[in-house]
Amino acid sequence: MPATARATSVTASWNANPEPDIAGYQISYGIVSNVYTTTIDVGNVTSYSFSVTGGLTYYFALQAYDTMGYLSPYSAEVAVLVPLPLGPSLSSLSPASGSIGTAVTMTGANLLSLLGLSTVTFNGVPATPTAWSATSIVVPVPAGATTGNVVVTVAGLVSNGAPFTVTGGGGGSGGLPSFAGTPAAVPGQIDAANFDNGGEGVSYHDTTAGNSGGQFRNADVDIEAASEGGYDVGWTAPGEWLNYTVNVASAGTYTVNLRVASPGGASMHVGFNNASNVWNVVSIPNTGGWQNWTTVSFSATLGAGTQQLTILFDTGGMNLRSVGVSSSGGGSGGSGGGGLSPFSGSAVPIPGTVQAANFDNGGEGIAYHDSSGGNSGGQYRNTDVDLEASSEGGYDVGWTDAGEWLNYTVNVTSGGNHTVQLRVASISGATMHVGFNTASNVWKTVSIPNTGGWQNWTTVSVPVTIGAGVQQITILFDTGGMNIRTITVN
């Protein structure tokens, strides 16, 4: 099976198996010889191209499978040293000046984000992009940034510097501009670390000087990396508070979902001002650890328009990762009736990753079908879908049975050829279908290999051609006997 590497792209080709009942092939690979962590079902073809992270040696092997689903032994292993991609380069910033929180669009080449290996800095201060592709990045000017060069680093390769002028406002005292430059959309999710700009006594109150966690922002609010990804606000103390400017799209009843952790339990207030005039006391349970996360939900009737969401810590002793606001009946509940609606209140953008546990709201027969009553794993959401904590972080859907299914509302930003990557585990192998409706009209059969354990995870990839626009991803379990954690569409 000869393979050719170009930048981070690998093309594998092979001779067809002459047996008459061959139905397709799957490629397995990893970075250790004879240890394959990723498997791709490529269908009945004899050549396939896909991307991997450059700078590593990969070991590839091929298997054929027949119409009954039986797999052949692995082919001879092929080792390929995949070179690093071409270095990133910046051609323009728009705007080229602005205050803290201003959203800046950066354009250039070879900007592709590699998880854990890509960064953006403003004169040395790390920034957190909100959108990232091979040719453009959208990123708010981070707190603490000063006038100087913006630089992108991808897999250790550093771009040219593009000059950016930081203007007044947003960083210290003064007004209350939102973190990203525009109010956070409600329905939607607000990350706890993305509190407004404005400084002590304006956008937050913190009783200790400096950022005890040393992460993400140069403020007195204490921020650390969260075990679920992103950041959380920690080291909380009684009387501390945070403000977040939001824009509620329409008046109505919403579910507020707080992602929290506490080793001893805590109490807090959550408020919305202006048109909403909401101020709720919320009890936080003992979750068993600072990074053992749970979701606490309550209902709130909100007015429309721009307003501030305020978090007040009554007792301290808790961590906060995010505040999600969804249409009534959403969030950690969702077991009631009504129409189909996205879990977070808005469609998940594609390309992107969908968490398997974040299936739509709408209840049995609308958002999902589950053949047993109750949540067998007892985690995250109060529905009949069975959820458990995953060994990789977050949650997975388990205890699957034949005929069960899940819906996820997504928004495909551009139609065309994409790859669906399913993060799965199974002790005996399984079969499922993945579908996209409306503009896409896709319905694919996917074979899930025996991974050796319910928490031994692998990635199975499926090529699809999908249309643009809002639509549903449907996951149907043909045989059960598998767990699923995420659905990534590249």
Question: Would you write up a description of this structure?
Answer:
This protein has 490 residues and is an all-beta fold. It has no helices and 41 strands. It has four domains: 3-82, Sandwich (Immunoglobulin-like), CATH 2.60.40; 89-166, Immunoglobulin-like (Sandwich), CATH 2.60.40.10; 184-327, Galactose-binding domain-like (Jelly Rolls), CATH 2.60.120.260; 348-489, Jelly Rolls, CATH 2.60.120. The model is unreliable at 1-7, 169-175 and 329-338 (pLDDT under 50).
How does the major sheet shape up?
8 strands, mixed
Average pLDDT over all residues: 85
How far the N terminus sits from the C terminus, by CA atoms, comes to 25 Å
| Category from helices, strands and their pairing | mainly beta
Q: Please report the first level of CATH classification, the CATH class of the largest domain.
A: Mainly Beta
Total helices: the number is 0
| CATH-defined architecture of the largest domain | Sandwich
**Strand percentage, roughly?**
over 45%
The strand line-up of the biggest sheet is 7-6-3-4-39-36-41-31
Q: Sum up the overall morphology in one term.
A: globular
Number of strands: 41
Give the helices and strands, then pairings.
Elements lengths: L2 E4 L2 E5 L8 E9 L7 E6 L3 E5 L4 E11 L11 E5 L6 E6 L2 E2 L4 E7 L8 E5 L2 E3 L3 E2 L3 E5 L7 E7 L2 E2 L3 E5 L17 E3 L1 E4 L12 E2 L17 E3 L5 E3 L7 E8 L3 E10 L4 E7 L5 E7 L9 E9 L2 E9 L5 E9 L20 E3 L1 E4 L12 E2 L17 E3 L5 E3 L7 E8 L3 E10 L4 E7 L5 E7 L9 E9 L2 E9 L5 E7 L1
Parallel strand pairs: 4-39, 9-17, 18-23, 30-35
Antiparallel strand pairs: 1-2, 2-5, 3-4, 3-6, 6-7, 8-10, 10-14, 11-12, 11-15, 13-14, 15-16, 15-17, 19-29, 20-23, 21-22, 23-28, 24-27, 24-29, 25-26, 25-28, 31-41, 32-35, 33-34, 35-40, 36-39, 36-41, 37-38, 37-40
